Amino acid sequence: MSIKAQSVTKLFGGPAPGVPSVVAVREVSLDINEGSCTVIFGPTGSGKTTLLSLLSGLARPNTGEVIFHNLHLSQCSDRTISSFRDRHIGYIPQGLLLIKDLTVLENILSPNAFCTRRLKQLKADALQLLERLNLQDKAGFKPGALSGGESRKVMIARALVKRPAFMFADEPVSDLDGESARVALKMFSELRGEGSAIVIASHKPLSLGRRADLYIINKGKIEDHRKGGGT
Amino acid sequence: MPDEDMLGNLIWLSLINIKRRKLFSVLLFTMAFLVACSLFLGNISHKLLKLPEITEFRQFFYVIIYSVLVMSVLILAAVSAVSANLRRAEYSILRIFGAQRTDIFLLAVFESFFLCFFGALCGVLLIILLIVSKALYIPYFFEGMRQFSLHRLIGIGGQAIFAAVIIEVIVSAVLLFILLRKDILELERGAF
């Protein structure tokens, strides 16, 4: 299984009518293969988040194609793309997006309630992940009682619980202390060991432990690609 | 159609949502209660009771009942619209993880269904209780009350519950359908 981006471009409308659009991603081509690790590295505003959205089927490109397993995502119906995300994609957004009235455990389970796995099994997996992330005591807490780093860990557990084939993480360790970041990256590495592909967008270097494909992005364009060049 | 496990998961999620969103749940429950009471009273008055010949009195009675019905439906529409708007961020999180529009639609329908069913059931039971205990006895209007059998009351109550649930679920579903037409995947870009 792989996801291929072929010359994808994404524009966003200007702030007012008549003002030119912003080119967030410009003719980017890249391949995400099974068991690979890809790091998209670039400064703030370089188009990393938009590129992750395009690759994970959250946004459609204006031109170019994102292809998953002979499926042209830009031409698929909403139902097909949702099903693709449900079955194959784990996503850790950049912002701290948790449902404030739900407990930590419910926050992990609720977005995954639409998949076909039993709740009991999901719950057991979620508790195991929380234990590994040292959040076992916070399972019944609401997000308001968590620090930024703890909320980030909950989002990591939420994305990992269904063991996705493709994990997209947008600045996943930006709020974490050294030890927590190491544990989170180790969990990504283990997921990769199971054959999943990991894609991480970051504006600072990461210690992944294993070699990764590095794409350097700036102003929406891939400026450099080092195969196995990132660590 | 969702499979068995997913259906179980959806029911769990709807019950969690009902529990955590107390204000909205109480409002929806109350609206269903009022709609069912209005429909039930309207129905027994129309079908079974021997109404007096004082037409103005009868019209006044109907005006009250159907005003409550219309007001309840309008308030329900407003509450549903506000609730769906407030929950856009939550729905977006679900969509990021692969929930389809129909899944979210189904989730909202389940929530409305549970609340409306229990609200309507309580409304009808209360009216039946008032009738049976003779606490609800208006001269002229309930002259034919003695001819009522309990199973007949329950039958008409069932109709009122069914109608109240259908009305409320349709109102919630239509509003959600309109709000979900816009794509809600802007969340990860911080659009909310």
Quickly list its features.
heterodimer, A: about 230 residues, alpha/beta, Rossmann fold, globular, B: about 190 residues, mainly alpha, 6 helices, elongated
- From the N-terminal CA to the C-terminal CA of chain A, the straight-line distance is 23 Å
Which structural category fits the helices and strands of chain A?
A: alpha/beta
Helix content of chain A: 25-40%
Global outline of chain A? globular
Mean pLDDT of chain B: 78
Note down, in words, how this protein is organized:
With 231 residues, chain A is α/β, with parallel strands linked by helices. Chain A has a single domain (2-100, 164-230), classed as P-loop containing nucleotide triphosphate hydrolases (Rossmann fold, 3-Layer(aba) Sandwich), CATH 3.40.50.300. Helices cover 29% and strands 29% of the residues of chain A. Chain A is built from 6 helices and 10 strands, in the order E-E-E-H-E-E-H-E-H-H-H-E-H-E-E-E. Chain A has helices at residues 48-55, 78-88, 104-109, 119-132, 148-160, 178-193, and strands at residues 2-12, 22-33, 37-41, 63-68, 71-72, 89-92, 166-170, 197-202, 212-218, 221-230. In chain A, the strands form 2 sheets. A 6-stranded mixed sheet of chain A has the order 6-7-8-3-9-10, with helices on both faces. In chain A, strand 9 (212-218) and strand 10 form a beta hairpin. The model of chain A has no long low-confidence stretch (mean pLDDT 85). Chain B is mostly helical. Chain B has one domain. Chain B has 6 helices and no strands. In chain B, helix 1 (4-20) crosses helix 5 (101-132). The two termini of chain B are 31 Å apart. Mean pLDDT of chain B is 78; it is low at 187-192. The chains are: A alpha/beta (231), B mainly alpha (192). The interface between A and B is medium-sized, with 36 and 29 residues.
